[in-house]
Specification:
Radius of gyration: 25 Å
Distance between the termini: 66 Å
Helix content: 40-55%
Shape: elongated
Oligomer: single chain
Largest sheet: 8 strands, parallel, barrel
Bound molecules: 3-methyl-2-oxobutanoic acid, zinc ion
Number of helices: 15
């Protein structure tokens, strides 16, 4: 299937809203502007720039991003409260393309303990608040918070009410990261089938990573009929985070054979975006993080290094340069083999005869057993030392 024949998936980035809700991840206005600019350049379709009623700072960030962004739709979050919706409308009003994103809880546990409202009361709130947002703007997203712990029957009624009131995107979040991929896919299939006007809106997946399933669930949501995915750079977000944008984008790129959906993100910006968000949020990226971790394209074991030197596809399913990494790295350590060691020596400008190579390799293994990280300088010192001994 060619890219043009694939269904397009809208990428909705919420690094600056759900991501910033991570305890300790707050960003300054300047930092948010930098992140938004990069998101816009790399092809994100919708940028959720903040929660305008939450603070004056959030309002200013959303409104400044709305003024500056060139390509993306800019949205701000609003609870199902008239003042929130007005504030969000005010913050995004200067954007080239703008959206209001409003939400309300739908699960029994949230209705009882968080809202103290009946199902019928919540249906009324949805109709009123979505209509209010729609009076301000044509592009309105409505989210059913805690959708995955809501009955399909009631969820379908809420979705029908939101679409009747003018919602153009319907988001069904896995707010607490509880769903499994099969369940999440089925939820979309059933809600879309049960809601008479479901063809009037784009459905959206929004997954949290409490069980480490956020990216898998998002893709399952698409298999079930969603055509928008909400995600964050580095998977930043509440608790264990949101679905990671880079994982979703590269899954679509790498496995187009079984995931026949296209997105507009240029993956060569992924590493840069990851580094920027890590720096401004002060959240380090774990070394083994998929796609953007320091070790994502690094190999230490002898068998893997030998394979990589023969053909890159032996142990890599993506090319590092596709995601903005300069090259694969063969890390020299105690698991490295002779092939990689010889290659490293050549890279450092040494060509040793068989016996000298044998001896250097033995000394390198000794060193690697003692030292956690073996740097180029260590190998240079070791070879220079050996050359001196041999010449004496
Ligand atoms: O996780 C969630 O339910 C949310 C909503 C506000 C969309 O972030
Ligand atoms: Zn969320």
């Amino acid at each position: 299937m060619t890219a043009s024949a694939k269904d397009q998936v809208v990428i909705f980035d919420t690094t600056l809203r759900d991501g910033e809700q991570s305890p300790g991840a707050s960003m300054t206005l300047e930092e948010k502007l930098q992140v938004a600019e990069l998101l816009d350049i790399m092809g994100v379709n919708v940028i959720e720039a903040g929660f305008p009623i939450a603070s004056q700072g959030d309002f200013e960030a959303v409104s400044e991003i709305a003024k500056r962004s060139k390509n993306a739709i800019i949205t701000g979050l609003a609870r199902a409260i008239p003042a929130d919706i007005d504030r969000a409308g005010e913050a995004i009003k200067h954007a080239n393309q703008a959206r209001i994103h409003t939400f309300v809880s739908t699960s029994p546990i949230h209705l009882q303990f968080q809202m103290n409202k009946t199902e019928e009361e919540v249906l009324e709130i949805i109709s009123k608040t979505v209509a209010q947002a729609r009076n301000l703007i044509d592009d309105v997203e409505w989210s059913a918070m805690d959708a995955t712990r809501t009955s399909i029957e009631y969820l379908s009624r809420t979705v029908e009410a939101a679409i009747n009131a003018g919602a153009t995107t319907i988001n069904l979040p896995d707010t607490v990261g509880y769903a499994t991929p099969a369940e999440y896919q089925t939820m979309f299939e059933q809600v879309i089938a049960n809601t008479p006007n479901s063809d009037k809106a784009v459905f959206s997946a929004h997954c949290h990573n409490d069980l480490g399933l956020a990216a898998a669930n998002s893709l399952a949501g698409v298999a079930g009929g969603a055509r928008q995915i909400e995600c964050t750079i580095n998977g930043l977000g509440e608790r264990a985070g949101n679905a990671a944008l880079e994982e979703i984008v590269m899954a679509l790129h790498t496995r187009g054979d079984v995931l026949p959906y296209a997105c507009s993100i240029d993956p060569s910006y992924l590493t840069r975006a990851s580094k920027l968000v890590s720096a401004v949020s002060s959240f380090p990226v774990q070394y083994n993080k998929a796609i953007v971790g320091k070790n994502a394209f690094a190999h230490e074991s002898g068998i893997h290094q030998d394979g990589m030197l023969k053909h890159a596809e032996t142990y890599e399913i993506m090319r590092p340069e596709d995601v903005g990494v300069r090259a694969t790295s063969l890390v020299m350590g105690k698991h490295s083999g002779r092939h990689a060691f010889k290659d490293k020596l050549a890279e450092l400008g040494y060509e040793l005869g068989d016996n000298a190579l044998q001896e250097a390799f033995r000394r390198f293994k000794d060193l690697a057993d003692r030292k956690k990280n073996v740097y180029d300088e260590d190998i240079e010192a070791l070879v220079e030392d050996q050359i001196t001994i041999e010449s004496e």
